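Task card 7
Instruction: Convert sequence to structure tokens.
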Amino acid sequence: MTPGRFDRYVRVSKATAAAVALLIVALRVVDEFAVTPDNTPVWAAALFKLVPVVVLCTAFIVFGAVFRPLQQPPPSALRIRAGTFVVPGSPILMGRLAMGWALVGTIFLDSDPSLSPTTRLGVNAGAALVIAGAAWPLLRGPRIVFTPSGLSIRAGGRRRLAWDDLVPVPITPLPLTVRGPKLALSIRRPDRPEPGWLLVPLDLLAVEPVFLGTVVEHYVEHPDRRRAIGTPEEYARLTGAA
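Output:
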């Protein structure tokens, strides 16, 4: 898969996850406010409550099958965005989490007729904000952004590092057991002579770990190349396509 095709897969997967999440919420809203004992048989009402769950389960399966190429991104996959290189989050995992949260978030909906219209409006507006507020960062997902000045990391926490904060990774192994793929960054510590470690989890990111580590190490050791970060020419040079 070419980086351009990978980029399209990422965009389409996020748009699809958002559309499914909205559909699930819409189905629950209809069930909550339109399906009543007066206008719907008991069997139909019970069936309608299962529809969002069926949609979610089906979407999980289809989503994984259609976007399977994103589970194994090309080793040189980076996105070029506004003068930066971006390592995106795993669209499949983030999309599934967003769809699942959309269903879970609908438990905050309330159609209790004993409440005043103003109270019901406030409760359900709050529910909509809860659903959107949690789904939005899930759809955005974690990421690592390369800029000429340093790294912006949103994976396992948020951190901004200037290139001068990083030092070449020493030959000695990590002084701890590392589980799961991690990006090991050796960072300066002003209060100590020896550098420390920052471990960035990569299981939530769509990237080949060895390639990512090589790119970081390259810019740590070659300050003169940092100004070119985010340009198509630099991307071609990094990936050997030049």
